[in-house]
Amino acid sequence: MAMTRHRVLVAGATGYLGGFVAREFKSRGHLVRALARTPYKLNHINGELDEIVKGEITDPESIRSICDGIDVVFSSIGITRQKDGMTFRDVDYQGNLNLLEIAKKAGLKKFIYVSVFDGPNLLHLDIVKAHEDFVAALKASGMNYAIVRPTGYFSDMGEFFDMAGKGRVYLVGPGNNKVNPIHGADLAVTCVDAMEGQRQEIDVGGPEILTFREIAALALQAQGKRVRITSVPLWLTRLIVSVAKFFNRHEGELLAFLTTAMTSQVVAPVTGSHTLKAFYEDCALRATKQ
Ligand SMILES: NC(=O)c1ccc[n+]([C@@H]2O[C@H](COP(=O)([O-])OP(=O)(O)OC[C@H]3O[C@@H](n4cnc5c(N)ncnc54)[C@H](OP(=O)(O)O)[C@@H]3O)[C@@H](O)[C@H]2O)c1
What we know:
This protein has a domain at 7-151 and 184-204: NAD(P)-binding Rossmann-like Domain (Rossmann fold). It is built from 9 helices and 11 strands. It has helices spanning 16-27, 88-105, 126-140, 154-165, 184-196, 212-221, 234-247, 249-262, 276-289; strands spanning 7-11, 31-36, 51-54, 72-75, 110-114, 144-150, 169-172, 178-179, 201-204, 210-211, 229-232. The protein has a 7-stranded parallel beta sheet, sandwiched between helices. The longest helix is centred in the N-terminal third of the chain and has 18 residues, at 88-105. It starts with 6 loop residues before the first strand and ends with a helix. Residues 12, 14-18, 37-38, 41, 56-58, 76-80, 82, 84, 86, 91-92, 95, 114, 116, 150, 152-153, 155-156 line the site of NADP nicotinamide-adenine-dinucleotide phosphate.
């Protein structure tokens, strides 16, 4: 049976996950338009995209015609490390809502959105609340949708690699909680499958279930370091989070999210084939070439 060639808008392609998703859509023969506020950030993949459109998701006027000629929208736009003075509410919620309104008016077939694993149970965290409030708006919109809720990305596991490079990894609490982190390429397969599939809410994680202590050890070993791990007591971390929130709510909330992730079980249905050991070995190889 011949495959339907869809015209897809990828919002977030300048980021870790969105880049893999844009390439996955393309590799399956779909037409890909990428929305970017800083198009030069797509230079490394622009040969793999059909169109790049400059626009700001937080400025609806600048993306007024972004969905013209498009069938499906994928969005992984959200604040992770960006420090441009905007809040999770401004970007993760309102920005995506602006895009949803435009997609609805243009009569698109489907909106695929990336939230956070266990989001509905973590609404006390600003970042998760912004994501899940958008999810509620998407569900109420009448549009066909798929919500993907992944565990931690390999890109975030890079934090442990960076600490390991300095000889010691600091964990929140004993680090015995389990997580199955996922590589962007594996997650992209799930996101693109969601376009054709009927599932509306998809929990997903990577192929290996590891404790944070095991992750720390992998990050150290990949760089030929002795395994040196320090557990920061939870009470101390909570104190640091409160102080951080007092001085800068946004930074404090990011820290609160990381603390919650490191002290909870973050295990979702398993998919993919990329291992963290191979990822860290690759990071180590690149570091030696620099
Ligand atoms: N990282 C994780 O472990 C994890 C786990 C579960 C869920 N998630 C969620 O998955 C999504 C994607 O994560 P990621 O790691 O791919 O993030 P990322 O690499 O930081 O990419 C985020 C994307 O959002 C865009 N963005 C951020 N602030 C913006 C703003 N003010 N205006 C317009 N665009 C803006 C970025 O554009 P610029 O390049 O222009 O900044 C980028 O394209 C996020 O919503 C995140 O919360 C992440």
